[in-house]
UniProtKB/TrEMBL annotation:
GO terms for biological process: nucleotide catabolic process. It comes from Paenibacillus albiflavus. One of its GO terms (molecular function) is metal ion binding. Residues 10-207 form the Calcineurin-like phosphoesterase domain. Keywords: Hydrolase, Nucleotide-binding, Signal. Belongs to the 5'-nucleotidase family. GO terms for cellular component: outer membrane-bounded periplasmic space. This is Bifunctional metallophosphatase/5'-nucleotidase. Residues 294-430 form the 5'-Nucleotidase C-terminal domain.
Length: 482
């Protein structure tokens, strides 16, 4: 018999990026709602990028703090974002989720390269029963296939994966929810092109949707970034004679700043902060002298990172923007935590082929304040400004009295004459390949990305080589005295 209109409450979060202090408030709201409606009428979902290795707690515990907090909050399922999938190795993620998580990870568009199967700690989809309501969950993440291939995964076409599993699940469940770490453009396209989806919960592009966007019968929701909001969706339905019909879907956002803190999660964060501090206090090297950094002109620490990129990638030239580093290093003990502080971004090295004239264009721009002072956001960058270019394998003689884009007098290269029409193998950073900062550096070909190492890993190796430190003091940028 019908019990009249019933209601499922769905809470969703996305793109927390390890702003873990917000989880104390999110957890308190989730627990309060669970006590009000009962666990059988509450569904709690995470839509990816909960982790971010910029956080000392996340980096120092290899993501375990995030999983422990999610367990305490009572999540029912989660999908990986690129900040999980591309900044930790599959082995570390397996340890986090397979051995510790009390909730499933859905990877509808992830397969192992070697086996062709979904990793054993993921699910292709999940069916959850809440009261009489059968809910099908599909989870997809942005398909950065070139990067995932370096980690042994295939990230398949997410919309094809959604279509496949919608067709498989539609007759088995009453509601289909897609947990989408794809970005709003993909979510809108999915809603318009794939029938049979009731609700899309989005992330990745940090979009804020205060009320659901509706395309046909599909509702699209998202909760911004950094735990500023909790998304809350109410699904009203009628269950009668083993059949369920959806009456309405409504959504809103809950601001978290004024919510009370949950004591359990606060305690988890304190304990994990202590554990992370032990890990991050490990000494890497004892410096005999300061290593200075300047965002706007050549400095030893920037040179050291550029030479590290050249050496790590076995390239002819190393190049990186000074803004990747937040400060220099003082003489004395240098720890893992120090390197996280000065180089927090999840930026990976890469190598590609670049023409001499494309290099020259970027080097000329590096002598212009509109580039060096340019503010950058996103694409893994965690600094403030782009900064000048740090180089290795080249010397550049320049005259600032000349007109912009004509200030370079001569470019020298370690193994012969610099040629405009020749392609050079350049060791650099993935951010440049995305068209961020110095645009000519995005024109490289034959690109090979190198994961899972970050820039701070390369810097760690360089700091342990006293010869490299001495070489980093040599001038690459030489101002003409004429």
């Amino acid at each position: 018999m019908s019990q009249g209109v019933q209601k499922l409450v769905l809470l969703h979060t996305n793109d927390l990026h390890s702003h873990l202090e917000q989880m104390t408030r999110i957890a308190s709201y989730c627990k309060q709602k669970r006590s009000e409606v009962g666990n059988d009428q509450l569904l709690t979902l995470e839509i990816g990028d909960h982790m971010d290795r910029m956080s000392p707690e996340t980096d120092g515990t290899a993501g375990k703090v995030n999983v422990e907090v999610m367990n305490a909050t009572g999540y029912d399922a989660a999908v990986l974002g690129n900040n999980e999938g591309l900044t930790f190795t599959p082995a570390i993620l397996r340890e986090c989720y397979y051995n510790q998580a009390n909730f499933p990870i859905i990877g509808s568009n992830i397969r192992e390269v070697e086996s062709g199967r979904i990793p054993d700690w993921m699910e292709p989809y999940v069916i959850i029963q809440k009261g009489p309501l059968r809910i099908g969950l599909i989870g997809v993440t942005a398909a950065y296939q070139t990067f995932y291939a370096e980690l042994g995964w295939n990230a398949t076409d997410p919309l094809e994966a959604v279509l496949t599993y919608v067709r498989e699940l539609r007759q088995q469940v009453d509601v289909i929810i897609v947990m989408s770490h794809l970005g709003y453009g993909f979510d809108e396209r999915m809603a318009k092109e794939i029938s049979g989806i009731d609700l899309i919960l989005g992330g990745h592009t940090h979009h804020v949707i205060t009320e659901p966007h509706v395309f046909g019968n599909t509702h699209v929701c998202a909760a911004g970034k950094f735990g500023q909001y909790i998304g809350e969706v109410e699904i009203e339905y009628i269950a009668e004679h083993d059949a369920v019909s959806i009456v309405s879907i409504n959504g809103r956002l809950i601001e978290t700043d004024e919510l009370p803190a949950d004591e359990e999660v606060s305690g988890i964060l304190k304990n994990n902060a202590d554990q992370a501090n032990l890990v991050l206090s490990q000494e890497i090297v004892h410096l005999e002298e300061d290593l200075a950094l300047n965002w706007y002109e050549e400095s030893p620490l920037g040179n050291l990172l550029a030479s590290g990129l050249r050496k790590w990638t076995s390239a002819e030239i190393g190049i990186v923007n000074a803004g990747q580093l937040l400060s220099g290093l003082s003489k004395g003990k240098v720890t893992r935590g120090n390197l996280l502080e000065i180089c927090p971004g999840p930026i990976n090295p890469c190598i590609y082929s670049l023409f001499g004239y494309e290099l020259r264009e970027a080097l000329e721009q590096s002598l212009m304040t509109e580039f060096t002072y340019k503010e950058i956001r996103g694409f893994g960058f965690r600094g403030e400004v782009l900064g000048s270019l740090c180089i290795d394998g080249l010397t550049v003689e320049y005259d600032l009295k000349r007109q912009p884009m004509d200030r370079i007098i001569r470019i020298g290269i370690h193994n012969g004459n610099f040629e405009e029409e020749r392609q050079y193998r350049v060791g650099t950073i993935d951010m440049f390949t995305f068209g961020v900062g110095y645009l000519s550096l995005s024109k490289g070909t034959n690109i090979k990305y190198m994961l899972p190492e970050f820039l701070r890993d390369i810097l760690s190796y360089q700091l342990q080589d006293t010869t490299e430190i001495q070489l980093a003091k040599r001038k690459r940028w030489i101002q003409s005295s004429s």
